[in-house]
Amino acid sequence: MWYCLLRNNLSLPILLCLFLFTGCYNNQKKGESPEAVDLSQLKEKGEITAVTLYSSTSYFLYRMEPMGYEYDLIKDFANSQGLKLKIVVAENVTRLIDMLQAGEADVVAYPIPINNRLKSEVLFCGREELSNQVLVQRIERNGKLITNVTELIGKDIYVTPGSQYHERLENLDIELGGGIHIHDIGRDTVTTEDLIEMVSEGDIPYTISDDKIARLNKTYYWNIDVSLEISFQQRSSWVVRKSSPALAEAIDTWASDKVSEPIHKAAAKRYFELSKKILEISMPEIKNGNISPYDPLFKKYAGTLDWDWEILASLAYQESHFTPIIVSWAGAQGLMGIMPRTALTLGVTLDDLSDPEISIKTGVEVLRRFRKGFDNIPDSMELIKFTLASYNAGIGHIQDAQRLAEKYGKNPAVWEDNTAEFILLKREPEYYNDPVVKYGYLRGTETFNYVREVLGRADYYKQQLSLLTQ
Which pTM does this prediction carry? Predict the structure, then answer.
């Protein structure tokens, strides 16, 4: 705008408008939204808007239900004030503050590092967290773990180029007098979580991660150690605008109140302690020609989908190991791993889900509804793959991947090497922030493996049952 006005001859009316505009802008204090909004105004409106980031630790949609450590906490605060919660998502940390100051959100529900510069612009509030960077290493049988940073000399450590982890390693290398072998992963789409998985699988020996990300990933990979801190602790908390002191005080009171302590402990346990590793997946023994005690029910309801009943049995094994009363870390319940909100939408109570027949019948209805979202897929096996993927991740994520596939020249009606490729990429900011994506971050490796494992086990069931009848 400034460039266009200066480039052309400015008339007096334009100059006057420009002067007035500049005057209005200067009267607005830095760090305040155009219209001051505090707790009283939010209560009048009945709603609070929180801005956060998509990530495995802050906010994501799992089976289309909102989850995340920061989400659980801000949801509890909103409830404590009798407010509805609206979540908006920023593309990066810088945009979090920009959106707050522009009045697009009332609170940043994401840990912002506390520093003097920001203290002059925003109010830090809520639970103060301490974080640092840690070494991620594989736990080997009879193997010795690195327990001191001096032992990093001579070790190969892999990080993403230009990251905070690379910077910290370079500084640590200088502090130790050199000798750390720092390797940049060249691929643009490799994230810290990918590197942690590579450590778990033995593809690389070490990487560096934020402790929160590391702790969460340890709930997926039991064979990693994340106990060695390699950086100073950084304090962080949520922030609100300078013009919202009452909101900041309410968040502080909520965070320090003993009443809110259980939600903090429950959220920490849910995301950073409870195992998210899928139950040990194996090819179970088929006894007396039976896959499970529920074979008659699988056969009864598979016809609703026109599927082989072994696929339905394999899905149930994947979800529960045929245990009717199991509950996952995310709250999925029963033989078929039904999410509570999904069950209630279908008129099924949580108690009902412990009944194997009700669980199977409900699971089949969920599958049937998901399948309707892919009417444009003509191949029956491809349709099964897309339906299974939706059952695991939620149909929104799968449709996101289809839109990405189409954008990048792949076939959105084919799973392997096409849509599945973008399911895997939906954990990368470049892809989950893409304009065609509506449902954000997804830990896509779980969904990718889910489809393969369910169908692979179903084929195993068919082969074994066939051998028994020969």
Answer: 0.84
| DSSP letter for each residue of 206-224 | EEEEEHHHHHHHHTT-TTE
Helix (H, G, I), strand (E, B) or coil at 88: strand
Task: In whole angstroms, give the CA distance from residue 437 to residue 426.
Answer: 9
The angle formed by the CA atoms of residues 190, 58 and 345, to the nearest 5 degrees, is 110
Q: What is the pLDDT along the chain (470 residues), one digit of tens a residue?
A: 333 333 333 333 333 333 333 333 334 444 444 578 999 999 999 999 999 999 999 999 999 899 999 999 999 999 999 999 999 999 988 899 999 999 999 999 999 999 999 999 999 999 999 999 999 999 988 788 999 999 999 999 999 888 889 999 999 999 999 999 999 987 666 788 999 999 999 999 999 999 999 999 999 999 999 999 999 999 999 999 999 999 999 999 999 988 788 999 999 999 999 888 765 556 777 878 899 999 999 999 999 999 999 999 999 999 999 999 999 999 999 999 999 999 999 999 999 999 999 999 999 999 999 999 999 999 999 999 999 999 999 999 999 999 999 999 999 999 999 999 999 999 988 999 999 999 999 999 999 999 999 999 999 999 999 888 76
Phi and psi at 94, nearest 5°, equal -60, -40
378-387: Cβ within 8 A, 24+ apart: 378/413, 379/413, 379/414, 382/413, 382/414, 382/415, 384/307, 384/311, 384/455, 385/415, 385/416, 385/451, 385/455, 386/415, 386/419
Nearest to 315 by CA among 1, 100, 305, 255: 305
The DSSP symbol for 415 reads I
Cβ-in-10-Å burial (0-12, 13-18, 19+) of 278 comes to middle
